[in-house]
Amino acid sequence: xxxxxxxxxxxxxxxxxxxxxxxxxxxxxxxxxxxxxxxxxxxxxxxxxxxxxxxxxxxxxxxxxxxxxxxxxxxxxxxxxxxxxxxxxxxxxxxxxxxxxxxxxxxxxxxxxxxxxxxxxxxxxxxxxxxxxxxxxxxxxxxxxxxxxxxxxxxxxxxxxxxxxxxxxxxxxxxxxxxxxxxxxxxxxxxxxxxxxxxxxxxxxxxxxxxxxxxxxxxxxxxxxxxxxxxxxxxxxxxxxxxxxxxxxxxxxxxxxxxxxxxxxxxxxxxxxxxxxxxxxxxxxxxxxxxxxxxxxxxxxxxxxxxxxxxx
Length: 312
Hints:
Layout: H1 2-22, E1 24-27, E2 31-37, E3 40-46, E4 50-53, E5 59-65, E6 69-72, E7 76-79, E8 85-96, H2 99-105, H3 109-128, H4 133-137, H5 144-151, H6 164-176, E9 184-196, H7 198-269, H8 272-287, H9 301-311
Antiparallel strand pairs: 1-4, 2-3, 2-5, 6-8, 7-8, 8-9
Helix pairs in contact: 3-6
């Protein structure tokens, strides 16, 4: 009998310990919880961390993340208003702000992510269908001045009317009006990647190549013009330097000839007869060679000079 009583007390004690253990739960920081009883929510959600009470064995605890969560959507092929098909990949940030409504409307974070993908994808499709391709691939800060500074050409500048970042804000505003009914707050939506389908990509590549060729041709033309300008300036400067040098050379040569003539005049004026004789010799040297026989008259200057030297 005592053994039965002791066993009963032991079981009672173990049951009480289990009841006390199951009568409390620990809510970690960054989590929130909803207490359910037979599957139905009971009371208000628990949002502060710590040890919280509950009815053991009857009530259960559903935990939900209180932090900001990231949802990456699947790439979708969407046509723009100018009939250009693109692959658009989006990402969004959201959080659970009403865990009770979230539990009742969605249930799990995985289902919530799928639901958000559907909401955002539909909103993105509606807005992309209403805008041109340029509005999706360019942000709103692509002003004409900015684009001219980037491409150094004003020929193909078409600034966007709205821009990718403003369209993403429009998507956020439209989708954020739907999510509160699920206990979810949508914080932001961003276009993570925009890509073309294969035919469009090839046309874009061809256009990019032709644009780069056009810019290269402009650069080469500008370079040739600069080259011609520099060569013309160099040729002009060379002609100026050459003409200046030639003028200075002529002036120096003229001054030298004048100085030489002056020296000759001073020298020859000292002995005019010798000067006349030397000039005669120079004349004979110019007209007489080895095969020439020279006949001098008795009254020639050379004959008289030779006769005078013979008498001496």
